[in-house]
Design a protein that fits this description.
Elements (H helix, E strand, L loop, with lengths): L11 H8 L9 E3 L6 E3 L5 E4 L3 E4 L5
Antiparallel strand pairs: 1-2, 3-4
The protein binds zinc ion.
Length: 61
């Protein structure tokens, strides 16, 4: 006589966990490292300061 009382427990819970895991989002504006003014993004790692012009985010750190 086979036992059919096995119930699927996990599975759908792991899917919900992965969906809410990665929500990192880069800002569209950064503060100028020299004057601290708002610098909107013009490229992936390049921002534009109204006082200093274009500057690039350094990957160090
Ligand atoms: Zn600046």
């Amino acid at each position: 006589m086979p036992d059919e009382r096995t119930s699927p427990s996990a599975g759908w819970r792991t899917v919900y966990g992965e969906m809410g895991a990665s929500t990192d989002y880069e800002a569209d504006t950064l503060d100028c490292p020299d004057c601290g003014d708002d610098s909107p993004r013009v490229r992936k790692a390049t921002f534009w300061c109204p006082n200093h012009g274009a500057w690039t985010v350094s990957a160090s750190g």
